Amino acid sequence: MASSFPTYPLQQTADLAPVLDAIGDARVVLLGEASHGTHEYYTWRAALSKRLIQEKGFQFIAVEGDWPDCFAVNAAIKQEEVSYSSAAQLLQTFDRWPTWMWGNWEIAALVDWLHRHNLSKPAEQRVGFYGLDVYSLWESLQAVLQYVEKQGDGAVTAARRAFSCFEPYSTDPQEYARAVAFVSEDCQDEVTAVLKALRTQTLQRPATNLPERELAFGAEQNALVAVNAERYYKAMLRGGGASWNVRDEHMMETLTRLLDLHGPDSKAIIWAHNTHIGDARFTDMRREDMVNIGQLAREQLGRDKVFSVGFGSYQGSVIAGKSWGAPLETMAVPAATRGSWEHQLHSQLSGDNALLLSSELRQIDSLSKAQGHRAIGVVYRPQFEQFGNYVPSVIPERYDAFLFFDKTQALHPLDIHPTEKGPPDLYPWGE
């Protein structure tokens, strides 16, 4: 059955040419995913990222992951020599649930590629890998304390005071949030003091090159994570959309800081779920006054400087847990519900994969109205999918392009595919 949508074939890396042309001179490219556990989303984001780096000079990838863990990967891929036994071993640093999001063979292959790419570049031009998320309160505090104690500077006192303030709650920030929910005393002033001390230090002793600036930037970013994580966990306890906004505003603040770090002509690639990168104003999130990095980037940088790519599939398999913290499982993803965006594409594309550009989709009247668009999180129960896994979306406005895969397979977590067995065949379609 012929497609009623203008589409482009999507079988090999060369087929990404139309979206690269559409990206043009955009400064920020946001690459989504409809789940956190689908193989094709990771491999095709990697394929597109490589072309953006090689052909358009993009300087870093920033992902929906914790800053300390990602910064360890960033440091490793910028070294002259391989400072880790294997990329798979390096990714063991991602030990907080859901470990599979970044501890997988697909990311291991990307890490190896980034290191090889960086070997041919001077230190100032090496591509980075950073985390945008806000969850790592305790880990970020530990990283700040280690940094300032090694530096022996004036921020030591503030860092130790903040560390002591959180120490009674062990490594559980949610326990902290519950403890301070009904009292006037919390640790907000302590983490803010650390951030101020590090910023003062940076002004007094500015670094002279990017690698040195990056180390100082990393410490300051950990302090910023601690500040915003303290806010996030308290907001999460109160419920509503406030905690979501704290999180995505932190992502945008981090992106802005990274762009500033890399200079006025810097270009960034973002990897995050569709619910983060697709403009929230064109979903039902708007009714709840929720924002996301896709919306904020367009507002703050200009729509012509931001290009967002949504991802989705009709059916297949996925890695997820049945509840928060539950063991990861390979789960079947049922056929998309009738009338959804994915169901329409499946029906009209006769089971083929496709690339679609929003500039062309906007000419179709039926797509100017919101329709269900599947979103699977780290927690997933396929039997209940139709009751809560479809986000009403105006697709051509939410994204600038869309990559559709008719049938997908589950991600390859390191936990399921141990390192001693070697990597699976990740690119049967040819990288």
- Can you tell me the number of structural domains? 2
Portion in helices? 40-55%
Q: How large is the count of helical segments?
A: 16
Low-pLDDT residue intervals, each spanning 5 or more residues: none
Q: Give a count of the beta strands, DSSP E runs of length 2 or more.
A: 11
Give the terminus-to-terminus CA distance: 29 Å
Structural class: alpha/beta
What is the gyration radius calculated from CA atoms?
21 Å
What order do the helices and strands follow? EHEHEHHHEHHHHHHEHHEEHEHEEHE
Shape: globular
Question: What is the CATH topology of the largest domain?
Answer: EreA/ChaN-like  fold
Q: How large a portion of the residues is in β-strands, by DSSP E?
A: 5-15%
Give the CATH superfamily of the largest domain. Answer: EreA-like (biosynthetic domain)
What does this structure look like?
It is a single chain. The protein is an alpha/beta fold and 431 residues long. The protein has 2 domains: 1-57 and 269-431, EreA-like (biosynthetic domain) (EreA/ChaN-like  fold, 3-Layer(aba) Sandwich); 134-240. Helices cover 43% and strands 13% of the residues. A hairpin with an 8-residue loop joins β6 and β7 (329-333). α7 runs antiparallel to α9 (188-204), α9 runs antiparallel to α10 and α10 (210-238) packs antiparallel against α11. The longest helix is centred in the middle third of the chain and has 29 residues, at 210-238. It is globular, with a radius of gyration of 21 Å. The model has no long low-confidence stretch (mean pLDDT 92).
